[in-house]
Amino acid sequence: xxxxxxxxxxxxxxxxxxxxxxxxxxxxxxxxxxxxxxxxxxxxxxxxxxxxxxxxxxxxxxxxxxxxxxxxxxxxxxxxxxxxxxxxxxxxxxxxxxxxxxxxxxxxxxxxxxxxxxxxxxxxxxxxxxxxxxxxxxxxxxxxxxxxxxxxxxxxxxxxxxxxxxxxxxxxxxxxxxxxxxxxxxxxxxxx
Length: 192
Ligand SMILES: [Zn+2]
Prior knowledge:
Lysozyme-like, six-stranded mixed sheet, globular, binds zinc ion
């Protein structure tokens, strides 16, 4: 028996995600096509989970006085299309048709400025902590839906560290690519 997909892309929105609009985006360049999915990790403060600070940060609403670390990122305007919390909840900050500000200076297969043509997914996590199993399962569901909606991303998944080597380390050594790829293959074969 086929079970209904958890997520669906409609009009650049991920149905099944909580919509939390961020002002930190702009238009993708004309004629650019979505052809890459970039996986990140983030936690605020670093290696601490919960608290809602990541969504406040992406909405430019973080109170910088709450933690010394926050002062080091004060005024930085960034975003990602999606964030998957430790609980598995998915938040969408930027419509997929728009350009989120997650990759920075980057290149993939010789093509620079990955923000122009990628979708950025943050996992609430850090370089020194295992991710939750539910995050892998939800990420696999989400990526399966995205690859269905944007077929050019089908073979193009990268970590932030792959597209900005020497500058970025996330999703980090605790992200199990093999485990994730197997979960994704399973979701995709079930969806057929
Ligand atoms: Zn990153």
